[in-house]
Amino acid sequence: MNQLRKICFVVALLSLTLVAVAQADGFKLSNNQRISCSRGLSPGKLNTATCKSYAYIFNVKTSEYFRCQVSLALTRDNKEVINVQSDGGCTKKPRIFETDSDYSFDATETEPPNTNAFFGTGGYAVWASDNTAQKVRGCIIISSGLGSDIAKCLDMTFQ
Prior knowledge:
Layout: H1 2-24, E1 27-29, E2 34-42, E3 46-59, E4 65-76, E5 81-93, E6 103-109, E7 123-130, E8 135-143, E9 149-155
Antiparallel strand pairs: 1-3, 2-3, 3-4, 4-5, 6-7, 7-8, 8-9
């Protein structure tokens, strides 16, 4: 009888763990986070460093995702830190696939404004695949420079 209680306890504990894991698997963090930093000199010999980082949170069932950004600005002189400011948040983006399934996702950002970023701060690319079928979609999102982003997605063909 004592062994039956132990088995029931283990089964109940395992069931609770599996339910918690199933609920926790709804959102995944992309594997491709980036950070970029810049430095500048201000009048009066002040130094300012600004760093930004991006990450993506993906709903593996619906293919909706959030683009998250965090930034930190540090101002100092030759002797002390004068000011530290930080900001951040996540913005919801539309679904990549129209139907629910089991999806994988990754994303990458362009570098900060440079010769590759013709329209402002650049853009990003996202890739999503259906884990239950041979289905992959690639999307590129860039800033138009006119206030709205341009997004185009393409289903991959397999030859």
